[in-house]
Amino acid sequence: MAVTAYAPASTGNVSLGFDILGLALAPIDGSLLGDRVSVVEETQAFSLENSGRFAHKLPEDPTQNIVYDCFLGFKAEMAELGIDVQPVKMKLEKNLPIGSGLGSSASSIVAALAALNGFYGNPLNSELLLRLMGKLEGQISGSIHYDNVAPCFLGGLQLMLESETQISLSLPTFDDWYWVICYSGASVSTAAAREILPAQYDKATTIEFGRQLAVFVDALHRGDRALAASMMKDVVAEPYRKSLLNNFDASRAYSLQQGALAFGISGSGPTVFAAVDNLNAANDIKSWLEQNYIQNENGFAHVCKVDTRGTQVLEDE
Ligand SMILES: Nc1ncnc2c1ncn2[C@@H]1O[C@H](COP(=O)(O)OP(=O)(O)O)[C@@H](O)[C@H]1O
Ligand SMILES: N[C@@H](CCOP(=O)(O)O)C(=O)O
């Protein structure tokens, strides 16, 4: 029976946890912000059919699509278990823009592997799947980072542990926070946005990074909203990446003036996010960003909450 998986958008870094903190997102109006991948049936030769708002931005050759690499990666893992996997017919509904900072490649990877695993009766456990997801994400961006694939797969706010037995830890979140996200419509390559970062950081930056992350995690556990929000400042990527983004400083200034608790770059951009604890302010910031941050017809904005469910796998009727 055909199996479909939905994998939500995610914000990597969340300003203060470069490569090790990520958040899954769900628009509060119920709209779909994530890719869907189906495994339809076994066939003679691998095939992939693309649809969705951003399908036209995908490589035309199906073997250049990361979904194909997921199939190969899954097949190799199954071979380790002594199981031979035949070519399959797959479908990708590409709802997330590529190079947007919303974990677009992660969403396709996670949905593809979750659907493949579901189709074959869940032979691979979650930990193994997550490692494979990270490996495939690393293939695209140049180095392995789990801050998109982990929240996309598991839901919620995830902190990377990356021990031999566990990749990710789930952190508590504040139910009353909204996450306004706005994608400008421009494309920023994650690999390129990683290359512009320094290879080394100075002592002061390193201490600041450690202080912020430690205090933030403690504040989350104690439910101290104000302290948690005050730690959300990016000392690692934003100083170098914000020059790639039009109108970033004005967008932050407006959001903070409207009462946003924090404002930053989602992943490697150009999407920006504002954390807000008031729905009226969240809607107001969303409208302003729509008017002032979006650059073309591909852009959009949503008021979101944390997606606590992560990837959803369904057997088709
Ligand atoms: N299913 C897919 N979804 C997203 N990107 C894909 C997919 N298949 C192949 N790609 C390629 O992977 C790269 C993704 O770029 P990247 O900047 O990492 O995107 P994102 O930050 O949105 O994940 C692009 O070159 C894109 O053409
Ligand atoms: N930690 C990564 C996150 C990249 O996210 P994406 O959504 O832009 O792929 C980074 O900041 O490079």
TrEMBL record:
Q: Which domain of life is it from?
A: Bacteria
Where does the record place it? Cytoplasm
All residue ranges annotated as the GHMP kinase N-terminal domain in the record? 66-156
Q: Locate the GHMP kinase C-terminal domain: which residues?
A: 217-293
Q: Which Pfam families match?
A: GHMP_kinases_C, GHMP_kinases_N
Q: In which pathway does it act?
A: Amino-acid biosynthesis; L-threonine biosynthesis; L-threonine from L-aspartate: step 4/5
Residues bound to ATP are P97, I98, G99, S100, G101, L102, G103, S104, S105, A106, S107
Q: Which reaction(s) are listed as its catalytic activity?
A: L-homoserine + ATP = O-phospho-L-homoserine + ADP + H(+)
What is the recorded function of this protein according to its Swiss-Prot or TrEMBL entry? Answer: Catalyzes the ATP-dependent phosphorylation of L-homoserine to L-homoserine phosphate.
Similarity remark: Belongs to the GHMP kinase family. Homoserine kinase subfamily.
UniProt name for this protein: Homoserine kinase
Source species of the chain: Catenovulum adriaticum
Q: Which gene encodes it?
A: thrB
